[in-house]
Amino acid sequence: MGDRGGWPVLLVHGTPGSAKWRPGPAGLSHVHERGVRLITVSRPGYGVSDRLVGRTVAAWAGDAAEVLTALGAGPDVGIVGVSGGGPHALACGARLSGTRAVAVLAGAGDLAIEDAFVGMADASAELWRSALDPGGALETMIGRIASAMTRRRPAEVAEAVLAGFPASAVAVMERDPEVRRVMVDDFVEAFAGGGWGWLDDARAFRSPWEFDLAEVAVPVWLAHGIDDEFAPVHQAQRLAAELPNAVMSNRSDVGHMDLIADAFNEAIDWLIAQR
Prior knowledge:
Blueprint: E1 7-12, H1 25-33, E2 36-40, H2 59-70, E3 77-82, H3 85-95, E4 99-105, H4 122-129, H5 137-151, H6 154-162, H7 167-175, H8 177-190, H9 196-205, E5 220-225, H10 233-242, E6 246-251, H11 256-273
């Protein structure tokens, strides 16, 4: 996406998600105008990517390196992670050679810490807490969604699941048909191989990330909405306090999805400024 000959920026999708996640028309125009080549790829277990059971957050840096090398897009790159892509983007900042800077929009924090669930929507907290339980709520739900997609139109199933997301996300989808379309397409693609990347992401977030935040020496920009019900803002604030070269941008009266949409262009501009 964007300028095929431009500076490569790896876009790390959310949880659940896939390579089909993309910014809206204004964001796509912006990356082209700024001379950015935006690269997306599905993590293991999403889309057509093979599942990697037991993967850690840190493991993504190795996958990212292989993808960028195959595309001839390294070693000078920027990284932008959205939502559940945030921890994986930070792993690139620690372990991916050539990373110039990392921007994280509404990123998830360390879910092994019980305090991480304070302020999170109850239904979301229940799912995340169950990630390490064999046959737990998250694993069961993913299986049911995958099964439903074999019997009904996948987009119809995706619409029904997304309608149960926290109120702030539903409001954004109702307000902006383009955001709704992207989220439905992304969700359907995430389940193309069964959706098990969601479970593996969750287990990775609930387990040691296998890299220290102190390893992330490159500049990091963390943008977060004060009203985020998916990843409460204190998760990002804790990360910012432990990262050696981070700046935090807290946005008032903004939730999860609207923060990602509103701050995307600013993230691209900030990454370019760090080159």
